[in-house]
Amino acid sequence: SQELEQSPQSLIVQEGKNLTINCTSSKTLYGLYWYKQKYGEGLIFLMMLQKGGEEKSHEKITAKLDEKKQQSSLHITASQPSHAGIYLCGADKGSQGNLIFGKGTKLSVKP
Amino acid sequence: GAVVSQHPSWVICKSGTSVKIECRSLDFQATTMFWYRQFPKQSLMLMATSNEGSKATYEQGVEKDKFLINHASLTLSTLTVTSAHPEDSSFYICSARAGKQFFGPGTRLTVL
After folding, report:
1. Mean pLDDT computed over every residue of chain A
2. What is the distance in angstroms between the Cα of B3 and the nearest Cα belonging to chain A?
3. Which of B53, B87, B85 is nearest to B69 (CA)?
């Protein structure tokens, strides 16, 4: 079965610094999603990537899917305290549209 | 974007009682909704796929008689945790697909 591995598991950065979170799949990805979650709350959709080599940006967050479609990275530029939370990558599991998730990366941003 | 709501946002119940959680798609119709469970500091795990007008599809290891799912309309799916026990305490999140997959805000269940 497909598994998603995220790294690092947790990350503490100083405000203003850049950071990257990685998501690696054991199988080819046909739909890769990035979500942000604050503990005890729902998931906020960030970006969806489908094509090899695709890159999307929203404000200071950029997500890429590699050409082989087995690895994705999420890059935050000039981090702010509002970026703190848990970042989850998810992948299409089946034709019905359900997702499997990585274990998440907990990001803390120090003011 | 599409909005998915859940009710209640949190619930505390005694062991042995049943708890119903509602998931609604507010501005779109969803023939399929998904129920996930998240334990503290863990990722989301899919429990079951809820299909409007038919039986839910449960993931391996999820007891269908304990977690009853009813998808009565195109905008409402309910998850009933029957005879709840403390180990059922968790964060339950539903989602529905409208192009992208949108998640509800979650329901925190605490079983005493």
Report:
1. 91
2. 11
3. B53
Residues A71-107: pLDDT tens digits? 999 999 999 999 999 999 999 876 667 788 999 999 9
Please name the residue of chain B whose CA is at the shortest distance from the CA of residue A43.
B103
d(CA A91, CA A25): 9
Put simply, the answer to whether B43 touches A102 (Cβ < 8 Å) is yes
Position B98 confidence tier, pLDDT thresholds 50, 70, 90? confident
Please check whether residue B18 is in contact with residue B88, taking contact to mean a CB–CB distance below 8 angstroms. Answer: no
Give the pair of three-digit tokens for residue A90: 């998810």
Do residues B74 and B29 lie in contact, with contact meaning Cβ atoms separated by under 8 Å? Answer: yes
Token pair belonging to A29? 């990805």
Contacts of A21 in chain B (CB under 8 A): none
